[in-house]
Amino acid sequence: MGTQQPPPSVYNGDNMNNNNTLDEKSAKQKAIDDWLPINSSRSRKWWFSAFHNVTAMVGAGVLSLPYALSELGWGPGVFILVFSWIITLYTLWQMVEMHEIVPGKRFDRYHELGQYAFGEKLGLYIVVPQQLIVEVSLCIVYMVTGGQSLKKFHDTVCSSCKSIKLTYFIMIFASVEFVLSHLPNFDSISGVSLAAAVMSVSYSTIAWSASLAKGVQEDVQYGYKATTTPGTVFGFLSGLGDVAFAYSGHNVVLEIQATIQSTPERPSKGPMWKGVVVAYIIIALCYFPVALIGYWMFGNSVKDNILISLEKPAWLIAMANMFVVVHVIGSYQVYAMPVFDMMETLLVKKLDFNPSRTLRFIVRNTYVAFTMFIGITFPFFGGLLGFFGGLAYAPTTYYLPCVIWLIVMKPRRYSLSWWINWGLTMGTESPHKKLEDNNNTLTPSTVDEDILKKQKEIDDWLPITSSRNAKWWYAAFHNVTAMVGAGVLSLPYAMSHLGWGPGVVILILSWLITLYTLWQMVEMHEMVPGKRFDRYHELGQHAFGEKLGLYIVVPQQLICEVGVDIVYMVTGGKSLEKIHSLVAPHKHIKTSYFIMIFASVHFILAHLPNFNSISGVSLAAAVMSLTYSTIAWTASVHKGVQSDVEYGYKASTATGTVFNFLTALGDVAFAYAGHNVVLEIQATIPSTPEKPSKGPMWRGVVIAYIVVALCYFPVALIGYYMFGNNVEDNILISLEKPTWLIVAANMFVVIHVIGSYQLYAMPVFDMIETVLVKKMHFRPTRTLRFIVRNFYVAATMFVAITFPFFGGLLGFFGGFAFAPTTYFLPCIMWLAIYKPKKFSLSWCTNWICIILGLLLMTLSPIGGLWNIIINAKDYHFYS
């Protein structure tokens, strides 16, 4: 009889229901889109884009451009000023062109264009963090600037009145933003933005015309004001950043273009580009006269705010400061709008909140309160932004549009467009991306046995995978060599900045956290049956995806490994110099020559092919680290507690105490940063399904961590106990005598850093040789290895000789790489791969480590930056 089919009406009813459901979803989605700030209104004309762009681009920083020119000098300063204007106009044109590159679709947000270019996930990871850094930090800076300008206005108008704290002026400024932040979208802030644009032109005009009226000063000088070479160089770099980042308005350009109406016949790029050109003409009329006339009149004695140099007439300065206030009110709103959009999109689309006025009221008030709190807490935030912001301003403004253009538009190779974009990008594409593409093609389904055999021969030649016969004790001394650095001798000094309680807690907590994250990496080495993750970035690719894994891990790993090698090059040279000064004190030889002597050893040892071949060097280094650590604490015990010992904080100010604490926090935490080579070490151990490598590797790690504890804890605690806050930054300096013991300890340091250099260099050799052989198809020969490794040693030697103070710089730059790769990146990988149950012990432990690691990554570079500022006067190139 068969199965009876339902009547057609049933099908039609189902289809109608489905269609109704789809229509309801579409209507709901459209209602949400119409409610969100960025795309709720599309009726604006070209002149709206003009003043929005002026408001976004011209900041109160225009008043510091003469000071930037004083750091750069006439020639470089004018060139950078003009060149930045041209480059950013070009990249802005690119973004305007790409707004509607896909027919029928508009990329209304920067991250949407990023997702189209790089993929859904990678696009978000690349664009959103950088965009948020720029927009949120600028809102904080504008909060501080508004408060400072109000205070300046008050002090000028009422100089005899009682002084009022800056905090209250920031709160007054914030009260305006609490009201204006409830304007729903870009259209509704048009009046505020127009007023801000007019004010920016007004106070810029006041600045250059008043300078012109004041005339060229009698004692004007145009030479560099710094008295030392490092001071001149750092001043130049600071001025370079001030000029370059003055053009960082690209973070809101697509959001501004989203407000302009568009049809297939008249796309939005026409009126948008017209507005951009007008805006850039206005920007030139603001920037160039202020910068050039201000510097011409005052020379290198110009203040970091040109209004301070002008001083009089008081009414004009007061007016200019009030114009600044009105301008930053509008600029705050322009930069806050995309942030409001991100938060409201997340809450409404992802978390299914109702798009209501109450939601908007809570979100925006919370944001304004947050930026006000940060502004009040860190009124010097603008100084920090000059560094941290550089990590986001430069990419989003100068070369990320070029990278996206190359991916999306695919200009013909060696065409004018191709050359311009690659020139601006400066070779930012990672070679490992190419390697990844190459590896993706090398699968058994697409290659024959000859190619697989050739692939195996290459793997057997590469440093990391060429030998797998190491025992557990190899892992032990390799890890000791990687973990224990000459920095152990500075741990008592770090304790003097931390104090007993926090110091001991941080010392032990770092030991426990890093042992835990190291255990995670050992466990994950063979988590996929039949596959070994022999390199850190391979594990990253498994956790985050082929592309994203490379982008996350490789840069951080290279910063750590190359940075440490340069530091060891300097440390080895300085230890040799210390030995020479103790043995032959009457004959002075420059540090550069001792670094070259130290490097000469590596020109030989660098040609040992793999990890197993450097085992002897690594063992000697591990023994030496234990030896000089023992000398340090036993000699301290022998010297005894000093009669004038004190354990209080040595800084005389609260600011100094806080920054010293952050510096020491980094010193202690980064003493455990040996995770960058742990998978590469484990790759040398044999493994079978019955006896996986994690057994002997973990055994070696436990032994290594016991040795690490025997090195770190006695040196740190006994050294601080004996000398208190008078301890030197190297405990051997505090010991002084006997001379023979100090000489021996320094020689042990030299032997140790010889081994450590090789250990950290081996993964770098592997990366370089992998790219050359697998992607660029060089033959795996001794000649290739000879050239590559000699070049690497020469490069690290050259940087060490040029920057013998590199260790001080690494305390800052390294913070961005050491903390993630050691403290929380393994935890993130663990959560991504194993997916432990929410609120289970494993889940909670990993999230605690991630939070502590993020705090460390954020706070320790601040201390490192402070340390650079304090010690910059003592930095000398080629010393």
TrEMBL record:
- Location of this chain's protein in the cell: Cell membrane
Q: Where do transmembrane segments lie in this chain?
A: 46-65, 72-93, 122-145, 166-183, 189-208, 276-298, 318-340, 361-381, 387-408, 472-494, 500-519, 591-608, 614-633, 701-723, 743-765, 786-806, 812-834, 846-869
Per the record, membrane topology reads:
Multi-pass membrane protein
Q: Which GO terms describe its cellular component?
A: plasma membrane
Query: Keywords of this protein's UniProt record, alphabetized?
Result: Amino-acid transport, Cell membrane, Membrane, Transmembrane, Transmembrane helix, Transport
Q: Name any one Pfam family assigned in the record.
A: Aa_trans
Segments of this protein annotated with the region Disordered = 1-22
Keyword check for Aminoacyl-tRNA synthetase, yes or no: no
Which InterPro entries does the record associate with it?
A: AA_transpt_TM
The Amino acid transporter transmembrane domain is annotated at: 44-422, 469-863
Q: Which GO terms describe its molecular function?
A: amino acid transmembrane transporter activity
Protein family per UniProt: Belongs to the amino acid/polyamine transporter 2 family. Amino acid/auxin permease (AAAP) (TC 2.A.18.2) subfamily.
Provide the protein name: Amino acid transporter transmembrane domain-containing protein
Organism in which the protein naturally occurs: Gossypium anomalum
